[in-house]
Every structure is written in structure tokens, then in C-alpha cells.
Write a structure and sequence with these properties.
1 helix; four-stranded antiparallel beta sheet; about 150 residues; single chain; mainly beta
Length: about 150
């Protein structure tokens, strides 16, 4: 390998400085423990924390917690589906779904297998899947189908 291209490559890569900023409770983050970070189609950054979910526009942080409609403050996962709905999985309260500023809750009372939501994702057919501490829930527009030890393939 010729020395000049190698030196030029090293100079170019070391000359770049990537801007990086830490956000903490001093910047209005409700907790320094962050479990998930997602970005929606409008450019908002969503943080899942031990004290609620946060929507960040680059300047201001808006916290969603139990007092503002989340079923639980401890956020395990945030997922943004193909319809730009924000799915917030919590440790003990199930899932909050936010669309156009309105929130609804999906939990064991309306069919979810467990209120302990660990991971949320969407399949190619548009179904939402929730992985919990005891199994899996498939959430469609009309039903919730649960899979656990008794009926999993």
C-alpha cells in the first residue's frame, strides 16, 4: 500500500469532528435511564425512560407519564408503526398508543396477554406484535391473539 494515500485517509478521517451532545435530567429529561430511542416521520425523537416517554423536537422536551395518560411511567420500548402511531410499551401498564395527540391503552383488560411489554414490532401484513414476559400478543385491527406456553407452535 502506498504511504501517501494511507496518510491522506488517516488525515481525512481524523479531521472530521462529529457533533455529539448528551442530554440528562438537567436538560428536562425525566430520567437519566433511557431504554429506547426512536424517530417519527415528523422528525421528533422519542425517548423511553424510567419516568415516562419524551418527545423531543431538538429544542424542547415534552414528557408523557402516568399523570398525562401513560398506563405506567417505566417505558420498556417505543415503536412507530407504518401509520405513524407511537406504541409505548410499559413495564406494568400495558401499551399506550398515541396518534394525532390522542392516546389509548391496550392492556390485559382488553385482551393483551401481559401488561409487561418488552418489545413491539410490526409484520409485513401490518399486524402489531408485542413480546411480553410470558408470551406474545398479535394485535390486529379487530382482535388480539395471544401465544404462550399452552398454545405456541
Amino acid at each position: 500500500i502506498p504511504l501517501l494515500p494511507l496518510l491522506l485517509f488517516c488525515w481525512l478521517t481524523s479531521a472530521q469532528k462529529i457533533p455529539f451532545r448528551n442530554y440528562t435530567v438537567r436538560d428536562n429529561l425525566p430520567s437519566n435511564i433511557v431504554s429506547d430511542i426512536e424517530q417519527d416521520s415528523k422528525g421528533f425523537i422519542w425517548f423511553g425512560t424510567q419516568a415516562g416517554a419524551v418527545r423531543f423536537d431538538g429544542y424542547n422536551m415534552v414528557t408523557y407519564d402516568y399523570g398525562s395518560g401513560l398506563p405506567d411511567n417505566i417505558v420498556e420500548d417505543i415503536f412507530i408503526d407504518s401509520d405513524d402511531q407511537i406504541w409505548i410499551g410499559t413495564e406494568k401498564g400495558g401499551i399506550a398508543v398515541i396518534k394525532d395527540g390522542k392516546s389509548r391503552t391496550i392492556n390485559t383488560e382488553n385482551g393483551l396477554l401481559s401488561n409487561n411489554s418488552k418489545t413491539i414490532f410490526q409484520d409485513k401484513s401490518g399486524n402489531i406484535w408485542d413480546i411480553s414476559n410470558i408470551g406474545l400478543s398479535k394485535i390486529t385491527k379487530d382482535t388480539i391473539i395471544n401465544f404462550d406456553e399452552s398454545n405456541s407452535p
